[in-house]
Amino acid sequence: MINKLIDKITNLQAPIVVGLDPMLAYVPEHIKKAAFEEYGETLEGAAEAIWQFNKKIVDATCDLIPAVKPQIAMYEQFGIPGLVAFKKTVDYCKEKDLVIIGDIKRGDIGSTSTAYAVGHVGKVQVGANSFYGFDEDFVTVNPYLGTDGVKPFIDVCKEENKGIFVLVKTSNPSSGEFQDQLVDGTPLYELVGKKVAEWGEQHMGKGYSYVGAVVGATYPEMGKVLRKIMPNTYILVPGYGAQGGKAKDLVHYFNKDGLGAIVNSSRGIIAAYKQEAYAKFTPEHFEEASRQAVIDMIEDIKGALSE
């Protein structure tokens, strides 16, 4: 799957991923009204609104982008109906031949970690039959329980030709409370980066590993160091745009081949119609604002990489 992701990035010249992280507040009123008329102001109504919102954005952008990244918490908050909307979103994106990065940030050990891996990137055995659960192509994994928490994901991914992105240095302001702490003079995030590179050697694609890393756009100097530590690791970069990451800060996340990183934008794209820059698009045409935001993001990153 890492080879497919790289091929799509190369063919589209678009090293970006759209974060499908919908809050109900992002959904235009006409979408919510239609959903609530059918299901009431219920969890089912909210989930239907989220699903219809996602579908419009995917339809408007799928020819421009290689991948999407649905954040499962945004769906879980609506309970079982929300998870149904998550699954419908994953399946619809597969129909559009998009690579799906399930942002689930799971981290546990033993049989629990295996169950998470099976549910999201593998198949579960039911008697004589086996079934895919959510069936993403990649998932995000929290490594802070050590190899016990990561290896079950790698094992399942090997069986299914899928991959993971391991949290190394996250984009949130308080990430340094733990991730920046020194261990024998070395920041913890660097030690995690070295471990990611080691895990990646167990599951390699053509030139890059199926074991990727998450490194936030808000810490470009740390990203520069981690790029050297993990030369064969694909880096998922959150924090662009709404969280303050700039395209010019991202150049060191990429290798000399122009590959090695994929940059995420969530609300900067899916809620673009709420931004002043896209005010010409009315809420009734929110998906057109999202499409323009994707085009602008691609050009912004291309421009930074060409300098």
Quaternary state reads: single chain
CATH superfamily: Aldolase class I
CATH architecture: Alpha-Beta Barrel
Q: Hey, roughly how much beta strand do the residues contain?
A: 15-25%
One letter per element, helices H and strands E, the order comes to HEHHEHHEHEEEHEHEEHEHEEHH
So how many helices? 12
> What share of residues is helical?
40-55%
Low-confidence stretches: none
Q: What is the SS-derived class?
A: alpha/beta
What is the C-alpha radius of gyration, as a whole number of Å?
19 Å
Write down the domain tally: 1
| CATH topology annotation | TIM Barrel
Can you describe this structure in just a few lines?
The chain has 307 residues and is of the alpha/beta class. It contains 12 helices and 12 strands.
